[in-house]
């Protein structure tokens, strides 16, 4: 059982401070995308976000605090964490602090101490799963905790989190499109032929087995659809990820004519929009939100996606699923999306419709506002 709260109604505007990494371009971090899309759609509260000087405004209702000197890295610098904590000690402008980050023991301990000192209401969004669920009691400090999936909420509760303090609210995602010109440009920059069927892997290189599963499926895919290009658009955020990419390149060298390693892409949504499918056989979402934005954006762009059925992504409506490690099912899906245009269109349209309904920013924002209202009673 999870706590439920009624939708918020109109009233005095509570002031909310989102505590997160810098909410500023480039939006390549799921937690900052979550804050961006949520803060723009509140009706009854006034949100503040921590950003950088000269960051583009998020909207007339969103107060931007130019707190960070530059956009945050994948792993925030220690000095930034210290500055955030000192800022919160001096913050008397807000009614609620809403922390949005992947929980870790050090930051959670500091946030718990701040909450005790300041006696301010705190909401905590578990932006991505903790490294160890066994540490749950020491990681959760909010008056209310928002999990992004039932999958994560179940595990938090199983490891000691009080169920009455947890709500399941998936991430909000704003609709998006990409023009045909943008799609062509993205392919040109990636060195991919305009008419070649494209399968795009945009998962991690380091924490999950997703990239290995994709590599295992490539011989099966190319045997049935040899005209296909398979591209890996993966950020190498750590030295370990760079080593993994080098190993992968060596392993796939026999397929070098059909496999591309792109690294970071300037306009990833445009490249996704030009793809036949986004295979995403990622079994470990450490460092990513439970419903990764790359998956949600692919859905909005009507690019079919396949994910493991037993994880949090299986909760996304109308998404194709596979048993973990089933390279045959993965390859079969990819070949069908390459070869069958009508099946691809139906898959993409159904997935887009489901994500627009399940992740609607206004509806999600209303559910979060209800949490605020409930803890301020």
Question: Helices and strands in order, then pairings?
Answer:
Blueprint: E1 14-19, H1 30-39, E2 45-51, E3 63-66, H2 78-89, E4 96-101, H3 105-118, E5 121-126, H4 136-139, E6 144-147, H5 150-158, E7 166-168, H6 180-190, E8 198-201, H7 210-224, E9 229-232, H8 239-251, E10 259-261, H9 268-273, E11 278-279, H10 293-300, E12 305-308, E13 320-322, H11 327-339, H12 341-358, H13 361-375
Parallel strand pairs: 1-2, 1-4, 2-3, 4-5, 5-6, 6-7, 8-9, 9-10, 11-12, 12-13
Helix pairs in contact: 2-3, 7-11, 10-12
How would you portray this structure in words?
With 377 residues, this protein is an alpha/beta fold. It folds into two domains: 14-172 and 360-375, 3-Layer(aba) Sandwich (Rossmann fold), CATH 3.40.50; 180-358, 3-Layer(aba) Sandwich (Rossmann fold), CATH 3.40.50. Helices cover 39% and strands 15% of the residues. Helix 1 links the parallel strand 1 and strand 2. It is globular, with a radius of gyration of 21 Å. Residues 1-11 have low confidence and may be disordered.
């Amino acid at each position: 059982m999870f706590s439920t709260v009624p939708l918020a109604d109109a009233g005095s505007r509570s002031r909310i401070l989102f505590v997160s990494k810098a909410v500023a371009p480039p939006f390549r971090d799921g937690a900052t995308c979550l804050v961006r899309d949520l803060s723009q759609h509140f009706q009854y509260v006034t949100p503040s976000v921590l950003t950088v000087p000269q960051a583009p405004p998020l909207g007339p209702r969103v107060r931007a605090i130019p707190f960070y000197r530059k956009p945050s890295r994948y792993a925030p610098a220690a000095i930034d964490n210290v500055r955030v904590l000192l800022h919160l000690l001096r913050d008397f402008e807000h009614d609620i602090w809403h922390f949005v980050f992947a929980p870790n023991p050090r930051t959670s301990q500091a946030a718990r101490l701040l909450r005790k000192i300041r006696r301010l209401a705190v909401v905590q969004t578990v932006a991505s799963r903790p490294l160890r669920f066994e540490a749950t009691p020491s990681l959760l400090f909010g008056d209310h905790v928002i999990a992004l999936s039932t999958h994560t909420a179940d595990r938090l509760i199983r490891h000691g989190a009080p169920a009455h303090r947890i709500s399941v609210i998936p991430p909000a995602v704003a609709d998006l499109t990409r023009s045909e010109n943008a799609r062509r440009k993205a392919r040109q920059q990636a060195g991919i032929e305009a008419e070649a069927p494209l399968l795009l892997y945009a998962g991690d290189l380091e924490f999950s087995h997703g990239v290995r599963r994709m590599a295992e499926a490539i011989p099966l895919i190319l045997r049935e659809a040899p005209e296909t290009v398979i591209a890996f658009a993966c950020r190498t955020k750590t030295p370990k990820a760079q080593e993994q990419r080098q190993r992968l390149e060596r392993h796939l060298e026999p397929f070098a004519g059909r496999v591309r390693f792109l690294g970071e892409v300037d306009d990833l949504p445009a490249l996704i929009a030009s793809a036949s499918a986004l295979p995403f056989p990622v079994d470990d979402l450490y460092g990513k939100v439970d419903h990764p934005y790359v998956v949600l954006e692919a859905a909005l762009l009507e690019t079919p996606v396949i994910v493991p059925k037993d994880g949090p992504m299986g909760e996304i409506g109308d998404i194709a699923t596979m048993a973990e490690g089933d390279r045959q099912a993965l390859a079969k899906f990819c070949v069908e999306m390459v070869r069958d245009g009508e099946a691809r269109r139906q898959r993409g349209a159904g997935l887009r419709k489901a994500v627009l309904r399940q992740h609607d920013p206004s509806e999600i924002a209303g559910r979060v506002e209800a949490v605020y209202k409930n803890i301020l009673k």
